[in-house]
Amino acid sequence: MHAHTPAETTAISDDLVLEGLGYKPELKRSFSLFGMIGFAFSVLTCWTALAGSLVVGINSGGPPVIIWSWVGVSLCSMAVAYSFAEICSAFPVAGGQYSWVAILAPQKYARPLSYCCGWFILIGFLSAGAGNGFVGANFVLGMAQMANPDYTIERWHTCLVAYLLLLLAAATNIWGRKALERLSQAMIIFNIVSFIIVVVVILARDNNKQSASFVFKDFQNFTGFGTAYASLLGLLQSAFGMTGYDATAHMTEEMQNARKDAPKAIIWAVWIGAITGFIFLIAVCFCIDNIDDAASSPTGVPIFEIFRSATRSFGAAMVLSIQISIISLVSLAFLCAQSSRLAFAFARDGGLPFSKFFSKVNPKSHVPINAICLVVAVNIALMSIYFGSVTGFGTILAISTEGFYLSYIMPLAVRIWGRWTGKGPEFVAGSYKLKFGFVLNVIGLLYLAFACITFNFPSVHPVNASNMNYTCAAVGASALIAGVTWFTTGKKGFSGPEVGSTFQEVIHAQHAPSSANDSIDLNVKDRTGDTVIDNKAHSE
After folding, report:
1. Please, what are the domains in the chain?
2. What angle do CA 259, 87, 409 make, to 5 degrees?
């Protein structure tokens, strides 16, 4: 009889938990804790995301709004991240939020709420892919404009380059699955090193730094709206820079020790992102030579103009720009991986039209190729918004963040309901538990609800058809599609996790190999404590 290594034992135990939820393990468990932290941080990659969306904050309040909104968003996001870590430790499944809703919600409403949550996550991830494609294209074209000042960037140039980058990200996921784990480990090192280089170089080379008053106090408003309203708009940049920290949850079926390491990866990624983002923003704001020039840079990327003015060197600015662009482009591949796993999981539960097709996993590569193709196709379609709207980027950011935040609200709401009423399932002994869980859940919920309202505000005055914020319309259209598909196919076809949606059971997974046969004990018990599944399997 084969004696399992500790890694094999843990993987088998995680697979049994997955089977207890009604799913067949199909994806390879290749990600270690360090690799998953690298993956999650590369998806989150706060400081480069903030660099790409800096134009929003510069126009909507300037440095004070940029910095203080980041502090507030980071603290509130911590409450959400810790709440997610607790839930993920108990239910490590690729569906993430929508699976948690199915498990934690009242049985009567579990399936429709889970289905709705799944659609909101899809909106978030698919829009984020388009948004990151936009940022990557802006970086590439911005560097081209720096190298050739006579070049004028057109909107259709941005769209076409974004399409190419999205296709490259999909190709990387289809044919480079084995490299993702190694790439994630390499990228967290490259990311941190690049962050240090960028901050040190711009601070050391800039001889004309701004005052502390300019950075922390002086309000700059280019929106045409009042001060309070513009400050709320500046929140969007920070919120976009701190989204996607549920990345780990959707990759748990590819982690070696999901129940233990997934919560750590979620929390580590947010902490690293918050700290690097804060330091980066302060350094950048001190080095803004002329805020008008940065906001109206011909590169279309204010951070490149800041690099050039701070370093006083085209070569140095280009090197820094290349570093930040590499991180952005690699994060696009990781985001594609995360989005495709979510689409695969949702289709596996019958949540998408043609679910059988999109839930297929290639037997040789163990990759959901059909889901990857779906993701990149929708990314490209959403990116096309920029063809017709000068505020298309802001709209994409708002749609993405709105989708994420709505999906974040739902598991927190049902978790609060469970804590308040005492009817929610108890978590397994030894899982990640919060001492002040209820308080953190409430703080996270209130912040998310407030932000979701803000994301629908127009960003430019006067408002017309070309600069209108179409977030509400896009989310409403998505909700309409979700509602129609629920009544046409989802109501009968959507399942969700078997244990959560059918019995509201609690999973008690205990992997305790004996010295004799290294067997794995998995006990799935319902609320009465009676055993539903008693599995001593995978021991040979």
Report:
1. 1-22+510-540 (no CATH), 23-496 (1.20.1740.10)
2. 145
Backbone torsions φ then ψ of 375, nearest 5 degrees: -60, -50
Report pLDDT for 472. 81
Alpha carbons 393 and 387: distance in angstroms, whole number: 10
Residues of the chain with pLDDT > 90: what percent?
A: 28
Kindly report the average pLDDT of the chain as a whole number. 81
Nearest to 496 by CA among 28, 112, 119: 112
pTM, full prediction: 0.82
Q: Nearest-CA neighbor of 22 among 99, 80, 113, 90?
A: 99
- Sign of the Cα torsion 73, 76, 80, 82 reads positive
The residue with tokens 């037997």 is 363
| C-alpha 200, offset from chain centre | 28
Q: How does pLDDT run across 159-174, given as a tens digit for each residue?
A: 999 999 999 999 999 9
- The DSSP string of 130-186 is HHHHHHHHHHHHHHHHHH-TT----HHHHHHHHHHHHHHHHHHHHH-HHHHHHHHHH
DSSP 318-375: HHHHHHHHHHHHHHHHHHHHHHHHHHHHHHHTT-STTHHHHT---TTT---HHHHHHH
Q: Please say whether the beta carbons of 536 and 520 come within 8 A.
A: yes
Q: Which residue has the higher pLDDT, 357 or 108?
A: 357
Type of residue numbered 338: Q
Strand bridging mode 220-221 / 60-61: antiparallel
Q: Could you write out the DSSP letters of every residue in 205-257?
A: H-SSPPPHHHHHT--EE-SSS-HHHHHHHHHHHHHHHT--TTHHHHTGGGBTT
* pLDDT tens digits along 226-264: 777 777 777 777 887 888 888 888 888 888 888 888 999
- Which residue in 124, 144, 142 sits closest to 134, CA to CA? 142
pLDDT-wise least confident of 147-156, 343-352, 512-521: 512-521
Query: Which DSSP letter does residue 2 get?
Result: P
User: Do 223 and 60 form a contact (C-beta atoms < 8 A)?
Assistant: yes
Amino acid of residue 536 = K
Burial code (b: 16+ CB inside 10 Å, e: under 16) for 345-377 equals bbbbbbbbeebeebbbbeeeeebbbbbbbbbbe
| pLDDT at 9 > cutoff 90 | no
Task: With a cut of 70, say whether residue 64 has pLDDT above it.
Answer: yes
